[in-house]
User: Fold these one by one.
Assistant:
Number 1:
Amino acid sequence: MVAKIFWGEASRTSEPEILDKVKEIAKVHDTVKDHIPDLLWHHTFTNPTSAIREALGVPDPTTGSRVLYILIFRKLEPITKLHGKQFFDVWRQCILCHLTLWKEGVYHRDVSPGNLMWYWKDGKRMGVLNDYDLSSLANVQGPQGNQRTGTVPFMARELLTEDGQLGKVKHLYRHDLESFIWVFAWISLRYRQGILLPRRLRPFDEWATLGAVACGEKKLVFLDKLTPSAPPDTDSSLWAFLVGCFLVLKMDAENRFYLRFQEPSDSGADQQSNAEESDPDAFLSKFTRSKSWLAYSKPSE
C-alpha cells in the first residue's frame, strides 16, 4: 500500500469524489475497468487553510484555500520500468482509459510519467491512469476548462504559450493526448531497459527547470529539428514511431493555424476542424491510423 498526503484546493472537486465517478464508469466500460487506482481508504480534514487565515486576520482568507487529504492506495509499478512493446502496450491502455473517461465527463488534465502506472493481473500487465487531484468533472461548476493544470514538461505546446498561461486557451482532449506523446518521448529517450540514463546522455533535463513559456519554445525547436534517422543508441523502429506521432502533432497545429486566417468556405474545412475539436475519437485516430503507429503496434514475431 502507498499513502498520498496533499493539500488540495478547497474549491476543486476532491479526488475521492472524482474516483467515485470513475468507478461508476468502470462498471460499464472495459477500457476503464482494471485501469484505475484502487482507493482503499481516505480521510479529509475538516479545517481548511481558510479557517487558519481567518483566525490570523489575513485579508481574503478563502482565496486559494486548501484542504488536507490522506488517501491510501494499493501499490502500483511505475511505467518507467518498462521498455519496448511492453511499454507501448501499457501506455496505450492508459490512453484508452483516459479517452473513455474524457467522453464520460472526467477530465484528467495532468498526464505525466508519474501518473501512468501498471500492475500484474492474470499474467498480463494492466496500465493504470493514476492521480486525479487535478482532474475535473464536466457537470460540476468550479475550476474547469481554462485553468492552467498539468506538469510543464509534458503539457501541450498550446497551453505553454502566454495565452495558455493566462487561461485564454480552453483545455481540450487533444491537449491531454499531446501530453501522452511527450511522455512517450521523455521515457523512451531518457531510459534504456527501464534504467535512467546518466545526465550527459539524456535529453530534456532543462525542460523540467524552465518556465512554461520557455519550455513551450524548447518543444517547438525540438519539433523543427526532427530528423528521420534515429539518434545514437535509439531503436530505429521506436524513433520512427515517435517521428510519426510528432509529424501528426505538427500538421494538426499548422492546419489549425492556417484555418484561423481563412474565410468560411463551402468546402466545410472549418466545420470539420470544429467537429474534430469536440470528437476525441477523431483526433486519436489521426495517430492510430498512421503508418508509424500501425507498424510499431504490431506484435513482435
Number 2:
Amino acid sequence: MSHDGTVPPSPGLPRHSTISQVAVHTPSGRQTGEEIEDDIRARNPGIRLIPGLLRQMYGFEERRVAPAGTWPSDLAAVAGRRALDRAGLGPDAVDLLVFASASEDVEEPATAHIVAHKLGVTAPVFDVQNACNGVLNAVEVADALIRTGRYDRVLITTGELGSALSRLPARHQDELAALLPAYTLGDLGAALLLEASDHPGVLGATFHANSAGWRAATVTNPYFTPRFGAQSARFDSHALAASFTGMEGAAFDALHAIGRTTGDIHLCCVHQASVPFTHAILEALGVPAERAVSTFPRYGNVATATLPLQLAEAERRGMLRPGDLVALFGLASGASFGMLLMAWHPSGTPKPPAQRTREHTTSLVP
C-alpha cells in the first residue's frame, strides 16, 4: 500500500502488526561517572560533591555522549537508516514516520520532518511526546493505524541528547540535589519498524496515568519559562517513584486478561532510571533478573531509547528467538505507565510463533 493510505485492507483477512526490526545508534563518546562529577565541580564552583556519588546512588558507571553539534534528528536518522537497511528497504517503503523522543531539534516544526528529510522519506510524519514513554505510545498508535489498514509500514524513531541537561547550572546544594538524576542521562538513537502481518506480533497493551504526580519531574520549555523562572530541570526521585504506586497491578490485570502471567515472559524490558529502580520494578512484577537486560550502568538513562536498546541488546546476545514472548514496561514522569506484550518476529515476513514451549502453541489474539 502506498503511504497515502487510500488502499483498504483485504476483506476477510485478519490484520495485525509486528515489530520486524530494531536498531540503535550508539555515539562513540563515553563519559564516566567520575568524569561527570569532575565536570560538575568545575562548572559549579563551591558545590560539594561526594566522589563516586552517581555510582553509589544510582549504580551509574558511564554514559554515551554525542559529538558537539549533534541534533536529536541526527541520532534518530542514523538508527532509522540502519533499521531500513536491515530490512532491505529504501525510504520510499515507509508509509508513516513517527519521531518519539523527549529531546527535539526545534519547537516547530515536528522533528519528524527533519528526520524524514535526512532519510529521504516522503511519507506523512508526526511527533509523539510523553517523556520516557514516547516510543511505547508511538508503538500503540502505529499498531492501531496498521490494524485499521491505514498504513502497512511505520518507522518509529527517537534521538535522545540527555547529556545536554548536564550543562544546566547548580548554584547551590539544593539545586544540585534536584538536578542530580539528570547527570545520568545519556545520548542514543533508536528505531523500530512496525509492519502489517497476518500473524499477531503486537498482542496487547495497557496504559495508565497518575497526572497528579506531574510536578515530580519537570524540564522547562526554553520559550516559556515564567512559571518556573530560569530554564531548569528538577527531579524529585522519591515523589516520582511514589507516583507509580499500584500501577504494576494494571500489568498483572492486562496479562491475566489474555491468559498470561509474568512467568510466561521470555524477555522483560523495563524503563531503567537507575539500578535500584530497575531491581524494584522487576521484583514488583515477579520477573527474574536473568529475563531482563541491564543497560543503565553502561548507558545511563536514555529515556525513550531505553526499551529499543534492551531489545537490540537482547537480540545481539542471542537472548531472543522467533516467537519469544516479550513484555515492554514503560514508566515516565507525569506519571504514566504502559505495558505492551509482543511476540518477537525479527524479519519483514514473520512466521507463526515457534513451538518452543507450551505457551507458544496457541495465538494470544483471536
Number 3:
Amino acid sequence: MTRDVVVVGGGPAGLAAAVVLGRALRSVLVVDAGEPRNARAAGVHNFLTRESLSPQDFLAAGRADAERYGVTFRTGTVSAVTGTAPEFRVELADGTTLTSRRVLVATGLADVLPEIPGLAERWGKTVLHCGHCHGYEARGSAIGVLGDQLGAFMNTLLWRQWSEDVVLFLNDALVLDPEQQRQLDAQGVRVVPGRVESFTDAGVTVAGGTVVPRTYLALHTRVEARADFLEPLGFKPVDLPLGLGTYLPVEDPTGRTSVPGLWVAGNASDARAQLTSAAAAGVTAGEALTMDLVMADAAAVA
C-alpha cells in the first residue's frame, strides 16, 4: 500500500500534521521511535489547555486525536528514505519498506550535553535548558547557570527573575566585560570562576574541589537534527550559528524543502520552537501537503 504521506516522528509537529491530513481524508502513517526529547520532564508547559500534562499523556492524547481520522501508527526507526515523489521508499531498521507519495520529517532535535559528570542522569529533572519551560517550577530555589559562549550571560539574567539565589559559573568558557559584571552585581548574582567538574546532589563542584550548593543547574545544549536517514536524498542538516548545532533547512514557512515531495516541520527545522509553535508548524505543513496532493491529483486526471 502506498500512503499519501508517511510522517517520520510522532511529536507535536508530526501529530498535528497527521490530524490535518487525516481530516482531509488522506492516508497517513506515522512512524515513531518512541524517544521524545522531553521524555524526562515532569510536564509540558506553555501549551494552552495542556498545562502540566505529562509528556507521555500529551502524546497519547495527540495520537488519539489523529486515530479518530484514520491515521495509523507504527513503532520503529527510519533508517533511510530513498526514491522520489510520488513514490518514496521509507526503510525501517527492522527491514520493512513503506512507500508514500510524500514524506514529512518531524523528528525534532537531540540534545548533546556538556561532558560533565552528573549532568546526564539529572537531565530534565534538576539540569534544565529552558527558563520558560522550567523556571516557574524552580522559582525561589538555588539555581546555577553554566558558563559558555552561547549566551550564558543573558541566560543568567533570565533565570534571575525566578530566584534571588542565582550563581553564574564561568566554567573557563565565559569572560565577562565590565558592563556585564556591573549588571550581574546589581542583580545580586554571584560569579564563580574556574572549570566546573561535576554536578551532584550536593551542588556544583569547581576546580580545586570547592562545592557550591545548588538545587538546579541551567545550561545550553548543542542540538542536532536527527536526519541521517535523509542522506540518500542528498538532503543533510546544516549548521546553526555560533556552534549551537544543526537543523534541516526549509524553502518556505510551510516546511517545503529543496527535495520535491519532502517536508520538514517542528524543531527539526526550528531549534527555538516550543511545543505550541512546533504543533503550529505541523498544522501549516499538513495544510501545504494536502494542497500539494490536491494539485497532483488534479493534474493526473486533467
Number 4:
Amino acid sequence: MHTLSTVDFVVRLITGLGCGALIGVERQWRARMAGLRTNALVATGATLFVLYSEAVGDTGSPTRVASYVVSGIGFLGGGVILREGASVRGLNTAATLWCSAAVGVLAASGRLPLAVLGTLGVIGVHLLLRPAGRLIDRVPQDDPDTGPAQATVHLVCDRRDETHIRALLLQALTAVGLTPTALRARRDQSESTRLQAVVSVTGDPAQGLEQLVSRLSLEPGVRDLHWHLETESLEESAEARA
C-alpha cells in the first residue's frame, strides 16, 4: 500500500496553492469578485481534501472525494452569481472557481504537470478569449428572419371622401404603432381613388394591420381594403406598382 510521504504532501499542496494563486492574480488584476485569495483557497481546499484520502491510504477514496469537491464548489459558485434585472453577473467567476478546484485536484493526485497546464489554460482563456469575444460582439448581425419587413395597405375609396379617408388611414396606422414610409394615391376614371401605404414592420404585423382593417372598413366611403407583406425593397416595390 502506497503511503503519502510528507515531502509529496508538501510538494502537491504547494503546487495546488500556487496554481490557484496564479489564476487568482489575473482575477485580482481584473478586480473581479473572486480574486487572489479566493482562488488560492479554493485550489488549496480541493488539494487538501484529495490529499487526505491519499494520506489514509484508501485507493478508491481520491476519486470519490474529488466528486464531492465538484459538488461543494457548485454551492460556492452559486453564491457569486447575481441577477440584476434581465442580466446575470458572476457566471465567469463561478466557472473560474470551478477550474481552480479542478487544478487543485490534479495537483493533489500527483499530476503536477497537468495541474500547471490546466492553470495556463484557465489564464489563457481569460487573457486571450476576452478580446476575441469583444471582437465577435462588434460584428454586425444581419439576420433576414429578424430584420424589418414591409407591408402595403391597399385601400379603394370614393374620390369625394379621399381627403377624409387618407387622414383616417394615417391616424389608424399611428394608433397601431406603424409609421408609413410611403403613401401613394391613384385616381381612376370611375370616381374612385386607390391609396397605397407602405409601412415598415418587425415581428408579426397581422394583429395591428387587422385592427386597422376593422377600423377603416366601417367607413361608408371605403370600397376595398386589404394588406400584404412584401419581400422586395421600397424602391423595387414602387417601381413594380408604377
